[in-house]
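Q: What residues go here?
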C-alpha cells in the first residue's frame, strides 16, 4: 500500500515524503513532523554541528576573539541568505520535497533525480557521519576506552531506531 501511495515506488518516500494528502501536481504526501518539531530537527542539525566543530577545532587557528566572531557573523549571513532563498522558494512552490521539488519545477525531472540521488547517496550520509564522528571524538575524551568510530556508529544506530519508532520522539530528542 505504501508503494502505491508514494507515487510508484520508494523514490516517492525520499523525494516527496510518502503518502497521504494530495499535492497540486505531485504524488500524495503525509505530515510526520509539525512546524515546531521540524524546526527543532533543523536547528539541532545546523547549530549542533557548527558549535561542536568550529569553535574547538578552527577557533585556535583564528588567533583572536574578534576573528572568531567575524567568521561566525560571515557564516551566519551566508546561512541567512540560504534560509531566505529556501523560504522564498518554499512560499512560491508550496509542496513537499524541498530542493528536489524546486529543481524539478525549474529544470525538469532528470535534473531533480540527480539532486535527489546526490542527497540520498552522499549529502545526508556524509553529514550524519561527520557529526557522529565529531561526537565520537568528544565522547572519547570522557570514555577513553571507547573508540570514536564505535561510539559514533552506536549513536547513529540508536537515533535511527528512535526515529523509526516515532518521529515525534526523534524530534523531542533533538
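A:
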Amino acid at each position: 500500500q505504501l508503494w502505491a501511495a508514494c507515487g510508484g515506488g520508494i523514490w516517492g518516500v525520499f523525494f516527496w515524503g510518502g503518502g497521504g494528502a494530495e499535492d497540486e501536481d505531485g504524488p500524495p504526501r503525509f505530515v510526520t513532523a509539525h512546524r515546531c518539531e521540524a524546526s527543532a530537527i533543523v536547528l539541532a542539525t545546523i547549530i549542533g554541528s557548527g558549535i561542536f566543530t568550529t569553535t574547538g577545532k578552527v577557533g585556535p587557528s583564528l588567533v583572536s576573539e574578534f576573528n572568531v566572531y567575524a567568521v561566525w557573523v560571515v557564516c551566519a549571513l551566508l546561512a541567512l541568505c540560504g534560509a531566505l532563498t529556501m523560504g522564498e522558494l518554499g512560499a512560491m512552490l508550496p509542496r513537499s520535497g524541498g530542493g528536489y521539488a524546486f529543481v524539478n519545477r525549474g529544470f525538469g525531472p532528470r535534473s531533480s533525480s540527480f539532486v535527489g540521488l546526490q542527497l540520498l547517496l552522499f549529502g545526508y550520509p556524509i553529514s550524519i557521519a561527520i557529526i557522529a564522528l565529531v561526537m565520537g571524538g568528544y565522547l572519547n575524551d570522557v570514555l577513553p576506552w571507547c573508540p570514536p568510530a564505535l561510539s559514533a556508529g552506536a549513536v547513529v544506530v540508536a537515533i535511527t531506531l528512535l526515529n523509526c519508532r516515532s518521529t515525534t520522539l526523534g524530534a523531542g530528542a533533538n
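A: Context that may help when evaluating the design: The chain has a mean pLDDT of 76. The helical segments are 2-5, 10-16, 35-58, 65-92, 99-107, 109-142, 148-165, 167-173.
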